Hints:
Layout: H1 2-23, H2 30-37, H3 41-45, H4 51-70, H5 80-96, H6 106-114, H7 119-145, H8 155-176, H9 179-195
Amino acid sequence: xxxxxxxxxxxxxxxxxxxxxxxxxxxxxxxxxxxxxxxxxxxxxxxxxxxxxxxxxxxxxxxxxxxxxxxxxxxxxxxxxxxxxxxxxxxxxxxxxxxxxxxxxxxxxxxxxxxxxxxxxxxxxxxxxxxxxxxxxxxxxxxxxxxxxxxxxxxxxxxxxxxxxxxxxxxxxxxxxxxxxxxxxxxxxxxxxxxxxx
Length: 198
């Protein structure tokens, strides 16, 4: 019985993640979730107390999906700049360009929609994005220590620039579905990082 309950919960999260990605949080109703899952309200509320709790589970699932794509093959790379380029390549080519979520970048969509509406939920998304920026800054600092990055550069500023660039790319790609958007962005990020090499 526990297996069936876990499968039902997974189905709720999967269907809700799709709905939130395409329609947004506020335009997705509990009735939409019921229709997508085929559950009754009692069946749904047996697993979640409400829509915000479902969103939290969907957000956690989206993070897990993103991490599995972006960090694939990254840990074994010794050169921190190659490690960064690989993660960014995975992010733009395989996550964004792979159209993992039908609505585009789930995190960008949620941050834009929730900002000004729900500071706690928006803040959670923003913290995830800034966490990626901090990781990039750490890799840049490591690159300088290993003498593969020019000394004296502002690692935090560089990382914020890269994260801002990929999020701008995500917004434009969502609107156009033009693959040259992420391809050009990726190419320019590679040039930017190579120009900072020693």
